[in-house]
Amino acid sequence: MSVLGIIFSNIHDENVADLTRLRTMASVPYGCRYRLIDFALSNMVNSGISRVGVITHYNYQSLMDHIGSGKDWDLARRSGGIQILPPYITAFASSRPEVYTTRLEALMGISAFIQSAKEEYVILSDCDVICNMDFSAIIKYHIETGADCTIATKQSYLVSKSGTSNNVELFYNENGDVTDIAEHNSQEPAFCNVNLNIYVMNRKYLEEITLDASAHGYKSFTKDVLARRIGRDKIKAYVCDGYFATVDSMADYFACNMDLLNPGTRRELFGIADRPIFTKVRNSAPTQYSDTAVTKNSLIADGCVIEGTVENCILFRGVKIGRGTTVKNSILMQDTVVGDNVYLNCVITDKSAVVRDGRVLSGHESKPYFIEKNLTV
After folding, report:
1. What's the mean pLDDT when you consider all of the chain?
2. Alpha-carbon distance 127 to 299, whole Å?
3. pLDDT for 7-19, tens place per residue?
4. Residue 338 lies in a domain
5. I need a surface site. Which of 70, 123, 183, 354 has the fewest CB within 10 A?
6. Are 14 and 93 found together in one domain?
7. pLDDT of residue 92
8. Domain that holds residue 174
């Protein structure tokens, strides 16, 4: 069983525009030391997939810095390994003059890469999929059922969020055959079979539907391509379990990080012995706690200096908290410096942000207060 992995790194950048102004969605920091792409990459590697293509759009310098040669995911290989796929990797990959805006156009842009691949199957995944999933199980299900396309789904409460990644629901019968794919438009929360934007299909089938979509000028991979093939092709649903989250807004990003303060969530994501989540390894000095430091229910990375109170927080490497300062329910990214006698609540800081002495800043779980990279407040 040979499988090619494809990850979309920029598809949902607009969902968290503040965080993706200088980076891709794939390289958004998460949980003290990780990037969002680490989960999709680790899921593929843990499932025996040794060739992965990462489709990029723009702002992918930080992504390349993070991935490097791929050695931290055991993807630094002479044959296969990881490949960064910028738009239009050959002059003939697409006849469109503009850079892609949809998942389907992204696939058209790398058609030459797909056609040159030798793998029999392809698994497609978004980069903002926070889960620890056994991809080999869905691939096995796809092969055993003889499906043309298998879509991962999970039952979850869903509210319509126009333009976001995770508002498409699947309808399927008792045999797992997909009967409809539709956007969830109700403003009332509903228990739905949510499309997780993870797809498995034969590589030749992906080539076929991509060429057909290009010939007809289709835009949407789900609405224009898959939905039109229901009943004609064999499209199956694969029901997933375990923790799953996507980043559809800043509030979702805040909530996903805060979920890690729950030991049960950490066990589901990082506590599975044969499915570790890999990331770029950095060596830092241990965190230093002064005699005035107080920490409660927080995740704190290496290299921090804590002199104040930290409660219900996620602190990345190199964060400094001054004396007399209280930080609650906040996410402080790498090298953030918080001065003395500061109060922060529901705040997200990007890298190297500085909060001067005596400041009082507060947001809300539904709208965290955000401080941009290198900004001084």
Report:
1. 89
2. 23
3. 998 877 788 888 9
4. yes
5. 183
6. yes
7. 45
8. 3-270
Shared domain check, 329 and 250:
no
pLDDT digits (tens, 9 = 90+) for 131-179: 999 999 999 999 999 999 999 998 876 554 444 445 788 889 999 999 9
Which CATH number characterizes residue 319's domain? 2.160.10.10
Looking at residues 42-49, what average pLDDT do you find? 95
* 116: number of Cβ within 10 Å: 8
pLDDT tens digit string along 322-351? 999 999 999 999 999 999 999 999 999 999
216 and 338 housed in the same domain: no
CB-CB contact of 28 with 21 (8 Å): no
